[in-house]
Amino acid sequence: MKNAPFAFVSLLVLMLTSCKEKNKSTYEGCCGTEATVDSFRIAFPTYDQNGNIIDSTSAAQIYIPNVFTPDGDGINDIFIVFGGPAVKQIVSVLCSNENIDQLFQSVNILPNDPGYSWDGLKPDGTIYQGSFNYEVEVEFIDGQIKTYIGKACAYTCGEEGFPTGNLPDCFFPDQHDGNGGFDPSLPIDEVCF
């Protein structure tokens, strides 16, 4: 009986934690982190048609959005890694949920290729909703390899609980500038919000 108060307090804490988890939104934390945007110069000469060096460096750019909407409307439907001409290949993309369960993996792909992007489906074929982790390994044309680790969100339009106050910090696939970078002035074209 001496342990009865301790057992009661432990049960109460467990119940309160359980209630808190039930009230937690699937989308909690979405767009709470910045998208991955990396831009730097690498030593790689560019030549004109006569074989003369125009520039001894090339711009290397990577853009990884922090939200996508896998709802099949053709707008921001896929989680895709964007890269400029200085990206040789995406060595690997790994997406996992908060429990580190694998949601998607792809290896040795070209940047900007929607055919090798994540469509938001879990391994069981159902649509994933909420925050997820990603790890992307990129090889540049000069041989250097960089790893990008971050968080993003898969949002199903119309679902309750998305933190709309975080929208200014949401960076969508449609905001890719066409050169591997990010352009915040581009419209997101989503009707969800």
Layout: helices, strands, pairs:
Elements: H1 4-23, E1 36-47, E2 53-64, E3 67-68, E4 82-83, E5 87-96, E6 102-109, E7 130-140, E8 145-154
Parallel strand pairs: 3-8
Antiparallel strand pairs: 1-2, 2-4, 5-6, 5-7, 7-8
Provide a compact summary of the structure.
This protein has 193 residues and is mainly beta. The protein has one helix and eight strands. The model is unreliable at 4-23 (pLDDT under 50).
CATH fold naming: Immunoglobulin-like
Topology as H/E string? HEEEEEEEE
- Runs in which pLDDT lies below 50 for 5 or more consecutive residues are 4-23
What class do helices, strands and sheet pairing give?
A: mainly beta
- CATH architectural arrangement: Sandwich
Kindly estimate the percentage of residues that lie in beta strands according to DSSP.
Answer: 25-35%
The structural domain count equals: 1
Q: Whole-number radius of gyration?
A: 21 Å
The level of helicity is 10-25%
Tally of helical segments: 1
